[in-house]
Design brief:
The complex is a heterotrimer of chains A (130), B (134) and C (102). Chain A is α/β, with parallel strands linked by helices and 130 residues long. Chain A is built from five helices and five strands, in the order E-H-E-H-E-H-H-E-H-E. Chain A is globular and about 45 Å long. Chain B is of the alpha/beta class. Chain B has a single domain, classed as Hypothetical Protein Ychn, Chain: A, CATH 3.40.1260.10. The chains are: A alpha/beta (130), B alpha/beta (134), C alpha/beta (102). Chains in contact: A-B, A-C, B-C.
Chain lengths: 130, 134, 102
Amino acid sequence: MKFGVVVSEGPYTHQAADSAYLFVKAALDNGHEVPRVFFYHDGVNVATRLSVPPQDERNIQENWTALAKDHDVDLVVCIAAAQRRGMLDENEARRQGKTADNIAEGFRISGLGQLIEMGIQTDRLVTFGD
Amino acid sequence: MTTKKFLYVNRKAPYGTIYALESLEVVLIGAAFEQDVSVAFLDDGVFQLTKGQDTGEIGVKNFSPTFRALGDYDVTKLYVEAESLAERGLTKDDLQDIQYEDEDDDYAEKPSIIIVNRAEMADVMADQDVVLSF
Amino acid sequence: MSTLHTVNKSPFATQALLSCLNHCKDGDAVLMIEDGVYGGVSGTGMASMVEDKMKSVTLYVLSPDLSARGIDAARLIDGIQGTDYAGFVELVAKHDRTQNWL
């Protein structure tokens, strides 16, 4: 079965990004497909490659990046939500005249249409938020 | 393209948090996909539709007029829960008048807001393919 | 046709669980995750509301979230079932849609 997953809260403050990660891993381990995870609201902050959590804590962004790489999961960060919160990829940074970008490997910035498309193309949609 | 029944569930008040605004942004973008769209307002979500919102002094954009434009995007089913209104001391008259033009009925103006009781809201929710919660 | 509902808030903090239970249909399932697991504990001010609903709805708690909060499964309301993440996945698959009460 194909699952679409939405993450709608930021990392560390809320458990949502951790719960979503464990859910996606369990789905993949049990023979399901997770073609895409969509990050919305403060969930876009999961995608920053500039976070430096203490070494004895899990690194939420790195967990997701590894999952995307190992299982070909499309990690999409909503562009409208991302721009509000200072999350930019190289292209957007250039386009907006900003001096830095911060999107980690495995994530890509795209429009809200990707969320709707995920709803259409998957069998089940699960949202992790607050 | 497959047509699915999409329900956007709004249970949060506007302005205190961004959920209401970013939910509306999803509804507007989603309209382009020509799915069967309904929007539900219950619990504090009913506060999103009230008349007379004026954000001039808090420095935040007042997005409540956008609800009146939903009809132009073919989003014409706004389910509002009667119990949620009553618990908050609201009646239908406290809500904006939101209408759409029915192209199948000589573009007659019809109300988009459908007041439902809790059991009917549960029926609406159970009749969907995709439920997105905000 | 049935729905899996998830609740991730303590019922002492928000009305998410109350609202969820008020909108469940017979045959639905409710899975309590994160702080939602506090809603599954017996002897609380919320327990009777949850127990009433269990005649028509199946209730689950996500065991890893229960353990994290130091709650022994023996303290759960009778009839509430613990499940792990694999069980969560199967519940999503088994029901026609998932509704998340955030």
